Backbone:
């Protein structure tokens, strides 16, 4: 068992309701383990942890890093300096559209374009069939890295974009359940928000390693795409 001190800053401090918390963790605990324990102990900060920075003994640390005994661990949002919010997550819990949009709404925001994918119960285009549920699976570390790449590509193509959301839900989802949210915010609707959101979902389908199994009355089958990434993807 290790004993650490956790410091919360900015919006994390407001949601947790405290600035400092002593915590015990297993001896081989990583930053990811710490985030999981904190999300259980302080549910209000859970939606923020995907975009939270972690410093162990005043050095930036990452999910796979182990935490030494006696460490001081600080959690805080990306440091201020003009950067725009980028929310990139692979989650199992239901998608909270209102919360996600709130996180990319700035004082200058006047438009947000949102794409939300839903488990379709009946397919009438092409070979008609019924779907009871979809089971989503992801290679999570790579998925998050590729989501970050998609967000970077959006910002390069549409510099006026302010906030970006790319969030995919995984697990067994029944027909009618939201599965993915792509959202882009900007000052005005004519600055690329429509095009950027469309690009985001199309690009996610190409390079982010997420798969789905379709379950229907006649059985189940994994759905494969037909895009093969190119060098540079």
Residues:
């Amino acid at each position: 068992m290790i004993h650490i001190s956790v410091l919360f800053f900015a919006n994390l401090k407001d949601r947790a309701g405290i600035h400092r918390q002593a915590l015990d963790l297993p001896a081989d605990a990583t930053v990811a383990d710490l985030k999981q324990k904190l999300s259980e102990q302080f549910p209000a900060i859970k939606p923020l942890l995907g975009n939270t920075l972690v410093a162990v003994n005043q050095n930036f640390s990452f999910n796979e890093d182990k935490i030494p005994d006696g460490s001081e661990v600080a959690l805080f949002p990306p440091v201020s300096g003009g950067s725009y919010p980028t929310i990139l997550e692979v989650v199992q819990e239901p998608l909270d559209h209102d919360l996600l949009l709130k996180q990319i709404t700035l004082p200058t925001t006047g438009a947000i374009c949102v794409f939300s994918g839903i488990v379709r119960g009946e397919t009438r285009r092409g070979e008609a069939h019924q779907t009871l549920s979809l089971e989503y699976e992801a290679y999570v570390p790579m998925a998050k890295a590729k989501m970050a790449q998609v967000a970077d590509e959006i910002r390069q193509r549409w510099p006026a974009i302010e906030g970006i959301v790319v969030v995919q839900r995984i697990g067994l989802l029944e027909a009618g359940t939201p599965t993915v949210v792509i959202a882009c915010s900007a000052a005005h609707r004519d600055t690329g928000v429509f095009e950027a959101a469309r690009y985001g979902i199309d690009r996610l389908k190409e390079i982010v390693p997420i798969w789905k199994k379709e379950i229907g009355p006649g059985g189940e089958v994994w759905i494969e795409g037909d895009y093969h990434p190119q060098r540079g993807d």
